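Recall that a protein's primary structure is simply its ordered list of amino acids. Everything else, from secondary elements to tertiary packing, is in principle encoded there. The following example makes that idea concrete.
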Amino acid sequence: MASAIDDVLIPGQPVDKQRLRDYLRGREIAVPQSYGGIPDGVSDCSDAIDAALAAAPTVLLVPGIYRVSRPVVLGYGQTLMGVGEGSVLQARPDPFDGAAPIYSQTGWNAVEVVDGYAAIRNLRIVGGASGIKLFGRDGPCVKTVVENVSIWDAVIGIVLDGNDNPDRPCYWNHIARTLVARPQLHGVLLTVDSAGDTPNANKFHDVRVYSLAAPMAGCGFFISAGRFNNSFIDCEANLHPGAEACFRLGFATDQNLIVNFYAESLGPVPGIRIDGGSQNTAILNLFSATGGAPIWDTTGAGRYTAFNAGHPVKNHLKRTELTEARIGRLELETAFTEGTASITLDPARTVHLISAWTGPVTAELPDPHPLNGVVLVVKKTDSGPHAVTVTQAGGGGPDADQVRLGRRGDHVVAISNGAAWHIIAARYDRPAAVWPNPTGTAFTRSLDADGSTLEDVRAVLRALILDLKNAGILS
């Protein structure tokens, strides 16, 4: 195809009509009216829009209401565009009502993008099971652009679906400056319905979900499945009090990015909900004006990073290296264990408070090799007769020996050097110390430096002097 008109219309040379036809066709914009479409909100424009898409790569919806009775399907490189809010694609029999939602749902999607490099711009979509659904039915659904679009009264506003084939993924799509208003279930959903890959590396910028007081059962943004740098920047969810969450990260989510998110609801709706299994999401600059928790980590696993987000804890950081820090208040992650005969200490918790009231407890320090520099504190909390014995994975314990915490308040502080655990502070009953003398007899005394009284020390010295006299060393 000629790239410029000067390559087609050359002065002094005859016009190649086929080249001119190809040149014009490649730049043609079709309108449904040319194929019998009547945008009056009553007439069915489905056939006209399909014919326009078959005739040209770009279809323009001039101002009007284009009612359709089946999905508008965009294939590879096709564009559906309007001229703003006056260009309405109506995926239901009932007209749009700005004062109240009308949920006469049809069970099919308003627009389906089934291949890559498509575009949807500058129009309003009303109704549909989803307003826009992206999925790789015919080819990889990649590099599609959705911008300056509003979606009203759909069950779900926008769906990105990994579908049924990992070779036709839903990657690298860009949704910007889009409003999803009055959705019944979710505003934005990332999912995989079958054997395909999760939607990955998609970009959402300035996408807003508003329920506008209409009932809503789901989430503003629900990433049911999505990995590897799906990013949500300057997005917002302002939801009905009955909604589930302004933003929800499902169990099949990994390494997503949320920046400058605004969450609002008059009800107990969490700003961001994190399900078990979700990991490595980064949350930066969260503003949450809801009646629920700003960040609700449902399992307490803490497998996310947050900066200037949450309340009362504003920052939740993973492994971090600091060259200098000044700390006004220090809080340590603490685990309390009771009624368990044997536990492996979790290195994600610095302090382990253990009760042996119901029976002896063995507390095993984890493998030290991946934990260089990690400090763990183990303390017995009960006054019962049973001990807490601190061991080490592979045998032995800190400083190559087991530690017996027999009294309430006994504790040991151990640090890993990457090869073994070493005691840096402790209070517990040490093993008996043996004092040899020239005659072969022995002086044995249980030493407890932290618990001994002055009288205990005097008794030790008297016994030692007596042993030395009996051995003839002192007179």
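The mean pLDDT is 89. The helical segments are 17-26, 46-55, 454-470.
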